[in-house]
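Dear Dr. H.,

I hope your travels went smoothly. While you were away I took the liberty of generating a structure for the chain from your last submission, since the lab meeting agenda had it listed for discussion. I wanted you to have the full record in hand beforehand rather than looking at slides cold. The sequence, exactly as received, is reproduced here:
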Amino acid sequence: MSSSNQPQIPIPTTMKAVLCPQPGPPSVLQLIPDYPVPVPPSTQTLIKIHAFGLNRSELFTRRGDSGPAVSFPRILGIECVGTVALSPSGKFHPGDVVVTAMGGLGRKFDGGYAEYTCVPEGQVLRLERGKELVMGEGGVGWEVLGAMPEMCQTAWGSLFRSLRLGEGESLLVRGGTTSVGLAAAAIAKANGAGRVVGTSRSLSKEGLLKGNGFDEVVVDDGAVAVKLGEGGKVDKVLELVGVTTLGDSLKCVKEGGIVCMTGIVGNKWAFDEFKPMEHIPTTVCLTSYAGGNEDVLATPLDKLCREVKEGRMKVQIGKVFKIDDIVKAHEAMEENKAGGKIVVLT
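The corresponding predicted structure, in token form, is as follows:
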């Protein structure tokens, strides 16, 4: 079907957009009320954005830590959810509920911190039952869907692609209070995992963690392996803190177990000194996960949305902001105390 045969949705000529003119603190982000709405070429899709989640990679980019991979000025945002406004090729229909993430969004080209964005059509995922699951009676709503694409693909890919988590297997999530950590616990339990243990720097987060699927909570003082003991070791570890705790996490798994490093919320990118024969125990495997757009497309978001709608899985929303308050949203992300995913509604 060509776009000329599709029902047309009115598209404004200007929109709200958040511009990052140069690296800096949260205050560098500028809300532009009359930014031009992009016009999609035949190979792209124009998405009317309803919500987007915040990600730490955007914090790093805003600070200038992405190097030459990102040029400024730039509209940031590596993910967004919304409805199709225009699909010149006819691949999608106006009003289709869609998500997109990664693939250069917010880095190589303008991203989700806006009311509209243009994305290569091959990077757009249409939810088959999107209108029912999101906007229908009892639907998850835009703020929940806005939290899911990057968070869920990271958790899903880490658990089932890198860790190859099997039914009944035990799991330790190092950095359990992060948005990905909370999602990983919920997804793991919904898919048959056995004992799921989460770490937190404070026992005050125990209720939050257990409410999202964790069976046990361990206060992380850097020596979780000692606290678990030989009999408490797990089959798999999802490492979200990074190299500051990775050495200890490698000691938390049983023989033949796997540790997957996915996150760096500890804000340290590399070991000062890495000795593989010393750091990696015999028979323990170390891997990593860094998803891309193809992993977003492969994540069963329809299934996960249905599980959320039916109450079989929880998506922990930390804070919700309007796009006008993007500076406050970034400040909240820097404080790292949201208690779940930060979502911005347009």
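Two observations you may find useful: The chain is about 25% helix and 25% strand. The first helix runs from residue 56 to 63.

With kind regards,
E. W.
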